[in-house]
Write a structure and sequence with these properties.
five-stranded parallel β-sheet; 295 residues; alpha/beta; two-stranded antiparallel sheet; 9 helices
Length: 295
């Protein structure tokens, strides 16, 4: 019950979202740490709490829709419960942890949560709310630190039965290799992608253009589902390119806490350098630059 009655100030699964409330300020913290703009962070905060309501509905089998299938992790292991280690990327510091912590805790497991070192404040406040909601000590545990130090030690710990990870492909591969050496361990790793938006020759531009812009630029392109590629049918390419560039030119970039801003900053200097490196690579490989970016 504690999972679905946690109050976040701005959001509560039992009382709904209250616009303008400050409370613990998940959206403000997320946006301020480079996660996204304020409106986007608001939306994902609401979505995370809605997810808790959704998964708790499956405790009542009468709430399961016909044809619906859901797999829940049953408790097992020492003392009748799995110990799960949860480590998540900085770009969804509130939503993704709850998507995984909720089902795990509801099924009687204990967890060790390591937030990204880039967004520790959000993870800290989230676990404080679990404590305020009345969770017994030791059920939800928080560990801060660098992935190569703390994360690696947790993944290798003999009392950790399951490792849930969201982050880079390289780290996910390392975690899978660690868990593969211990037959008792399970690794669930969600890593990056190179998603594409496909514009067919019969596409409706009034739908395709905003969809492509949102997919490519929302959260400043810093998410696994961001459109890193736009694949456009040759019959519509010139039309789409002209209108897409015009739309992107009107995107407002600035302070992510300003609700009129669509794109905020990248998370850190390493991310900036990576984007600049890929931009230069495109030029070196002969790509035609339709709209110049930069700092």
């Amino acid at each position: 019950d504690g999972v679905i009655t946690v109050r976040t100030g701005a959001v509560t699964s039992s009382g709904g979202y209250r616009p303008g409330a400050t409370g613990c300020g998940f959206a403000q913290r997320s946006a301020g740490l480079g996660r996204s703009t304020r409106p986007t962070s608001d939306a994902f905060t609401r979505r995370a709490v809605s997810h808790l309501d959704y998964i708790t509905a499956f405790e009542d089998t009468s709430a399961v829709l016909p044809g619906t299938s859901i797999q829940m992790p049953d408790p097992g292991g020492s003392l009748g419960a799995f110990v799960e280690m949860e480590s998540y990327a900085w770009n969804f510091p509130f939503a993704v942890p709850l998507w995984m912590l909720g089902p795990s805790l509801m099924e009687g497991n204990t967890t060790v949560f390591k937030p990204s070192e880039e967004t520790p404040a959000v993870g800290q406040r989230l676990i404080e709310l679990f404590e305020e909601a009345g969770f017994p000590p030791g059920v939800v545990n928080l560990v801060h630190g660098l992935g190569e130090e703390v994360g690696d030690a947790l993944a290798r710990h003999p009392e950790v039965d399951t490792v849930c990870f969201t982050g880079s492909y390289e780290v996910g591969q390392q975690i899978q290799e660690i868990c593969a050496k211990d037959f008792r361990k399970i690794a669930a790793c969600e890593t990056g992608s190179k998603s594409a938006v496909i514009i067919l020759d019969d596409a409706l531009m009034e739908i395709a253009l905003p969809a492509a812009a949102l997919s490519a630029l929302k959260t400043s392109g810093q998410r696994c589902v961001s459109a890193g590629r736009l694949l456009v049918h040759r019959k519509r390419f010139d039309e789409f390119a002209e209108k897409f560039v015009d739309r992107v030119k009107r995107v407002r970039i600035g302070d992510p806490l300003d609700e009129s801003v669509f794109m905020g900053p990248l998370i850190n200097q390493a991310a900036v350098e990576k984007v600049l490196r890929y931009n230069q690579l495109a030029r070196d490989e002969g790509a035609e630059v339709l709209l110049e970016g930069g700092r």
